[in-house]
Structures are given as C-alpha cells and as structure tokens.
Amino acid sequence: MALAHGRALKALYAVLLTGSLTAPAPALTAPAEPPPRSRPSAAPSTGPGTAAPVAAPRTPRTPGVRGLEIAVPAYVRADGPLLSELTATDPAASVVVLNPGNGDARFDSSWRARADALRGGTTATGERRRVLGYVHTDHGDRDPAAVRASVDNYLRTPDGRLHVDGIFFDVVSRECGPGNATRDHYAALRRYVQDTMRSVDPDVPELVVDNPGTATADCYLEPGHRTADVFVTYEGAYADYTSGGWPGGNVFDPAGSYRTGTELDPSGTAFWHLVHDVPDATAMRATLATAFARGAGYAYATSAAMPNPWDTAPTWGFRPETGYAATLG
Length: 329
What we know:
Layout: H1 3-22, E1 69-74, H2 81-88, E2 95-98, H3 109-119, E3 130-136, H4 144-155, E4 166-170, H5 181-200, E5 207-210, E6 216-217, E7 230-237, H6 238-241, E8 251-252, E9 258-259, E10 271-276, H7 281-293, E11 298-301, H8 319-325
Helix pairs in contact: 2-3, 4-5, 7-8
C-alpha cells in the first residue's frame, strides 16, 4: 500500500472512529523464517494496594524460541460485545488496545473496570494479558502537550492506580525528520510514558507501541533513541498483504532498502502486523504463519473490513486464532 494512501486511510479511521465511538485471495508465500530469538515474559502487575489477578498455570514457551502473540486493536465501547468476547477468550490474546472516543473520551470507571477484567486473562504461554490505551499523534504534528494529556488520561487516574500496561500511539510518522527531529519527538513521548508509569507504579513493566502502519525507518529502533517497544509495520487488507502491498520488510534505511529488521530486534517482539478482510479461518492461519515468517512477534487477522475493521470480532472468533498462534515457534 502506498504511503500516501496509507495516511489517507489513517485519517479516515480517525474521522469515523470519533463519530462511532462517541455517540478469493492469492495464496500466501512465506519467506524464510528468521532465526530463533528469546522473548521476555510479562511480569504480573500489582498496583498499590491491589492484588494481582490469579492466572491459571500454563506452560511457558521454551526460552530462546521465538513465537507469535495475538494483539488486538478493539475500537469499540467499553460494554461492547467485542470486548466481552475478548475478556472471556481462553487462551487470552496477549495485548488488547482500548480506544475510548478515538482516544479523546475520558478513561472513566467503566473503561477502567473493562481494562481490569481484560488484564485478568492468561495467554497460552502463561503470561498476563496486557492492555494499552489508544493515543493519536497525527504523524507527529499533534501538539505534544495534547498528546501528553491523552497519555495522562490513561495513566493518571482518580484512584491513583494503573489500569493499563502502556500506550498505543497511532497515526505515527515513519520518517526520521530533519536531524532525526521526528524520531526524537516520538522517543520523548516514550520516555514520558515510562516516567509517568514508573511514578504511579514502578512494578508494572511498560509497553509502548508506535503504529505507522507500514515499514518504519531504522532510526526509530536505533539503540539509545528507540521510540517504542513494538512497531506496527503492516496495517492493511489481506489482498495487499498477499501481493504487492507488503513493502518487503519491517524497516527501511536512508537508501530506501527494506529488510526484516531482525538485527534490530533481538527479542523477536518488535513488529506487529494487522491484516483485515481475511476471507476464512484457513486464510487466517496462513496469514499468521506468514506474519511470523516475516519477522512479526505480534499479529492479528480478522474477517472484518473497512471502514473500521477493528470494531467486530472475526467470523471464526478469537480462540482459534490465539490457539493457532501458540503453535508457531
């Protein structure tokens, strides 16, 4: 998908979500799988004065073996059926993104209760499900003070507790900018999330995601200047993912060369692929296998379509997806 077209789709998402939340495909060809890498475990969270959810014991993935996790953007109301289904799914999706009013509505008690319920889920590898708050950034052009205020909406709650595990920054630029200024803007936002979370509860390991929706410049993963833990490096339709819409890698360099980015991703968890308009469960499994082979540590395939593919559960449900992902690795 061309970058300009991708930006237009991002703008369309934002317009549609603000209104809605506040009132036969070609065969997949999987490239060679990158070498196995270790992946960290998510430690259980215990907010001040609050006991961590008790999770059923499961068998963790063998250390040093890279796997695939399911991570779901859920752009619906707190009481919507999509979030109810995700809350009840076992094994749980590893990450869920909550989006109150395109990130602009209050993260009130109903949202905090939903986040707490989601965080009680356990993944196939025995880890606690993590929840992120949605914040839009307008390709780096949104006022930084407004972005920080949106972050605070999730992290500085009236009860003084953390109900989320981090922030999902959307509509993110993929360009370094003059003198890496755009990259540094996002690196500062990541530090703000880290510092704020640690001031509220230092025992919660923060998770920051940047979503450019396509391959990102390698400067965003430069040691010492990294802007996120995870990057959404594909967001688009199944037909594009299986043909010319895949740019050829998760990162690109100043010369315009695309590559998997595995050398910048020692944990195997840095990249996330989001694929919609997937025709059936067979194609879902092929999509996840291809995401894994293309270097993704997180993925989500759904049958839902534009204009908002993130407001409806896939026709096959979530459990076949979380269960199949657990077999990869």
